[in-house]
Amino acid sequence: MSRNPLVVLLALLAFCLPAARGQNGKPKAPADTTVGTVKRAAPLGLSLQAVPDLLYDHVNLPNLKRGQGVVLGAISADSPVAGSGLRPHDIILTCNGTVVHDGAQFLRLVEAALPQQSARLTLVRGGKEVRMRAHFQTAALKGATKPGGPPALNVKAEPLEGGKLEVTFVFYSDSKGKLDQVTCKGSLPEIQAQVTRLNEMKRIPVRVQELVDVALKQIRELKSP
Predict the structure, then answer these.
(1) The whole model's pTM is what?
(2) For 132-183, how does the pLDDT look when each residue is reduced to its tens digit (9 = 90+)?
(3) Which residues pair with residue 91 across a beta bridge?
(4) What are the boundaries of each domain within the chain?
(5) How far is 161 from 33, CA to CA, in rounded Å?
(6) CATH of domain 46-135
């Protein structure tokens, strides 16, 4: 496995579990899992690209500086940002006060804001700087957790020094009526122990605990040489 910085992002649904497991019982990495790159189809349903150099020369705005910003491409209908007010070709400059430098960073900022269901954005649209609050749709996760329906889970894993990881699990909380998340840090055995304690404390809903186990197995396989 490469030692370069990487980001692993997974989206899991309960009805996908049989397909995710191979014949030997081990889960296969899902097709939309992305390591160390910006473009991915899930879980946010966004395509992003760098700002073309010529725009820095032709759009004279004080906050559009070379090396900053990211261009929003296609938005899938089931994306949390669908209906948020964002449009294809918007150039995102800041998210919740943080300057956006690339697509991977913007995805992390949006995923961190999902539990709050909104984010403050500064963007360029039609050659003008626009400030807005984007409201995220959580219906896809919420609908999947209705009684009798499959639970859903978003997972983000980022590397730390010493081969350790920071893993964030995002799921819909019936008790809170909105998205919730928990974060674990350490080696994979340490993270597994933290997850076990969270399960015992009922911090992670019972209906998504199996998905958490599958996600950890997939991350373990991705880290294997």
Answers:
(1) 0.51
(2) 998 876 655 554 545 545 567 777 777 888 888 888 888 877 777 777 889 9
(3) 71, 124
(4) 8-40+139-223, 46-135
(5) 22
(6) 2.30.42.10
